[in-house]
Structure formats: C-alpha cells, structure tokens
Specification:
The complex is a heterodimer of chains A (about 130) and B (about 140). Chain A has about 130 residues and is mostly beta strands. Helices cover about 0% and strands about 55% of the residues of chain A. Chain A has a seven-stranded antiparallel β-sheet with strand order 2-1-5-6-7-4-3, with no helix packed on it. Chain A is globular.
Chain lengths: ~130, ~140
C-alpha cells in the first residue's frame, strides 16, 4: 500500500527571516525542462530534441492576514512545505513577480502571488 | 478562539439589542419564558481552512417571539430582520465583526423569514439568521 499525504499542514516560508506567510491556503510549483529541436534529415521525418535549461515558477494564495508581501526586491530563499514533515519541501531563491488582491462583498479579502525561481531548486528528499 | 468563545462573542453583540434575552451555546435553557429571546446554535464547523489551521463556522441564531398560536407577534419579527434599526440583528453583528475578539471576522449571510421552532416541548414563532465566522 502506498503512503499518501494530506496537504493541510503545508506552508510557504521565507527562510532568511524565518517567517511563514500566514493565511495561505494553497501553493503551486511548476518545474519546466526546456528543449531545443535537433531534427535533421538524419531523423527520418521524426522530430528530435535535446534538453537545455530548467526553470521553475509558481503561485501561492490565501486570506489577507496583514500587509501584503512586497513585490519589489528579492530574490529571497523560500520553502514550499508539502506537509509538516521537514523533508517534504521544495526550496530555492525566488522573486515575487506578481500580486493579485481581491475582495468580494460576500467573502474575505485575499492575496494571490506569483513567483519566479532563480537558480537551483532543492527537491523533497522524502 | 473557539466555538464557545465565539458563542459568547455573538451574545455580547446581540446583548446590545434592548429587550432581547440572549442565550450563548454554553447556556442554552431547557425551556424559555422570556420573549423575544435568541438562541445561538453552532451548525457547521470547517477545519483547516488555511495552512495555519484556521477554522470556519456556520452559526444559527434563532429568535423566538412567543407561542405559535399568537401570530400578532409576527409584526415584531420585522424589526429584527431590518438591515438597520434599533433592533436590527445585522447592525448588532456588524458593530463588531470580531465578535468581542473571538474571531477574525464574520458575515451575517441571510435571514430565513418567518417560521416556527420547537424548544422544550413548545412551538414558538421564530426567525433564523445564518452567520458565517472565520478564526
């Protein structure tokens, strides 16, 4: 039987300042491997590629619990916790690239952020 | 923060309505004899609404106005349903959305109109409000 993990103890942390971004409900991380096409006459009309560079970016969003995170500046070392287990985290330097603030008459004020990773991304070790 | 404190906070807000007897969840009576009165009843608890472990609650606030065989009491209900009046439940709740510092915020969602509620073996004219609370 495979082990599954609930995400309700996740977190987004700024490592340098040791602060958790409070009110957050979810985060996403996209890791992309770019490729360059190498198709030539040698490939018998079948496209061929080679991997080039890796990039990563993501989002996190939740309730407003204080002042928003400053979009200017960075990069900052961030942790994206999948669970409350220390090894279940992604870590790397990221730049906050976007902020969407929202409020509706029948709900709560929310903030949603986008970030762009820069440099190495450390993957979960378990 | 917790459901008991929230109940006390709602009572604090509603106690500002002159003449309304309010019962918090921890002090609900077996029977009622003073009217109008408000019964604060937890209806729904949603756990873990964010990573920090916040909760979300739905609270029912039921106002009783006397025996169901006395429909003249219906007229009194309107004053409590009004968005703003001396007896407005919404105005009393909105006066302090932290509910006496027991919650982050709250929204009075709706009123369900005229109805009847059975309590302690008797049926009373009533109206019900639905309050959503976040902690």
């Amino acid at each position: 039987m495979s082990t599954k993990y609930s995400g309700n103890c996740g977190a987004v942390n700024f490592v340098t300042t040791g602060t958790e971004v409070t009110g957050i409900k979810s985060w996403t991380l996209d890791v992309t491997q770019e490729v360059d096409e190498t198709t030539s006459f040698d490939d018998d009309s079948v496209r061929a590629y080679l991997p080039t560079i890796i990039g990563w970016s993501g989002t996190f969003e939740g309730y407003k619990t204080g002042v928003p995170i400053e979009v200017r500046g960075g990069p900052d070392l961030i942790e994206l916790m999948e669970t409350d287990t220390a090894t279940h985290k992604w870590e790397g330097n990221a730049i906050i690239t976007g902020l969407t603030a929202a409020t509706s008459h029948d709900g709560l004020a929310t903030y949603a952020y986008t970030f762009q990773g820069t440099g190495a991304l450390t993957e979960p070790t378990a | 923060m917790g459901i008991e404190l929230i109940g006390d906070g709602i009572k604090t807000n509603l106690d500002t309505i002159t003449g309304l007897r309010v019962f918090a969840p921890k002090e609900l009576p077996d029977s009622v004899s003073e009217f109008p009165c408000a019964l604060i009843l937890p209806a729904e608890t949603n756990y873990g609404v964010d990573f920090s472990g916040g909760e979300n609650y739905i609270i029912r606030i039921i106002l009783l106005f006397g025996r169901v065989d006395r429909p003249s009491a219906l007229n009194k209900i309107l004053d409590y349903i009004e968005p703003s009046s001396t007896y407005s439940v919404q105005a009393a709740i909105n006066a302090d959305k932290t509910l006496d510092s027991s919650a982050d915020t709250c929204i009075l969602r709706r009123n369900l109109g005229f109805g009847s509620t059975t309590w302690g073996g008797h049926t009373y004219l009533s109206t019900e409000f639905e309050l959503e609370v976040w902690t």
